[in-house]
Amino acid sequence: MSYYKIDSLEQYFKHYNKSIREPRKFWGKIAEENFTWYQHWEKVVDFNMAEADVKWFVDAKVNIVKNAIDRHLARRGTKTAIIFEPNNPDEPALHITYNELHQRVCKMANVLREQGIRKGDRVCIYLPMIPELAVSVLACARIGAIHSVVFAGFSATALATRINDSECKMVITSDGGYRGNKTIDLKSIVDEALQNCPSVKHVLVAKRTNEAINMVAGRDTWLQPLLDEASDNNVAEIMDAEDPLFILYTSGSTGKPKGMVHTTAGYMVYTAYTFKNVFNY
């Protein structure tokens, strides 16, 4: 019996009760049957509730992007992985296949490495809702860099606070973005924020609005020319199950923003499982 797909309310309660009675067996079976691992775990979960210390799939080795993209190429390579619906309804939608997404992510991963980003480095992503956002997130995870996505509507102060807290080495942004019929000058917000962010060494800039922007010599680089020159061959980094995957900050509406760190394997298994069943995918 597979626990992965729920087809009825009766089956939901059956699976739910199983997860409560035997959580290690339940999640271990889901992880074993539905994901690709470099190395199996010693324990499904290890925890100390008094110290709020929880570890999932202890000592397992995995890469979340290998699971999200690579393993699907043989059977789903020509199928659509991402649909990009632009802000302007007159601009055509873009369908990106798994093969195309794999190529884009590998190229971006190689660009990040060429720019000096290594496993464990933090990368701030301050982009509008364009394909480069998803590609950047996946490329960071592929090489073991920790991404921090900041909503491209936050102020320079809010952006700087999040960059400094996680000591990001790079910012990935665009010349601008669209919100309704307005154009948002994202690059100037980044420039203002980086006046107080000494950890940032490089800024990669995607073209979106084609507005005239300021480019700081030695720090800012247009992204597309780097991608055009990059190889699409890239080997995914082998990650420990408990290696950090990304940092997501709270809004800061009730105080200083708090960075919530999500690790790799537990996040991968739980989000894939809930997405499949909550959205009946």
Question: How would you portray this structure in words?
Answer:
It is built from ten helices and 15 strands. The mean pLDDT is 95. Helix 7 packs across helix 8. Helices cover 37% and strands 22% of the residues. It has two domains: 32 residues, no CATH class; 244 residues, 3-Layer(aba) Sandwich (Rossmann fold), CATH 3.40.50.12780. It is α/β, with parallel strands linked by helices and 281 residues long. The strands form six sheets. A five-stranded parallel sheet has the order 7-6-8-11-12, with helices on both faces. It has a two-stranded antiparallel ribbon with strand order 1-2. A two-stranded antiparallel sheet has the order 3-13.
Low-confidence stretches: none
CATH class membership of the largest domain: Alpha Beta
Structural class: alpha/beta
Gyration radius, in Å:
20 Å
User: How are the strands of the biggest sheet laid out side by side?
Assistant: 7-6-8-11-12
Reading the helices and strands in chain order gives HHEEEHHEEHEHEHEEEHEEHEEEH
Proportion of beta-strand residues = 15-25%
CATH architecture of the largest domain: 3-Layer(aba) Sandwich
Mean pLDDT: 95
Shape verdict: globular
How many individual β-strands? 15
Straight-line N-to-C gap? 19 Å
Name of the CATH homologous superfamily of the largest domain: ANL, N-terminal domain
Domains, number: 2
Q: How many separate helices? A: 10
Query: Main beta sheet: strand number and arrangement?
Result: 5 strands, parallel
Q: Give the helix proportion (percent range).
A: 25-40%
CATH topology assignment of the largest domain: Rossmann fold
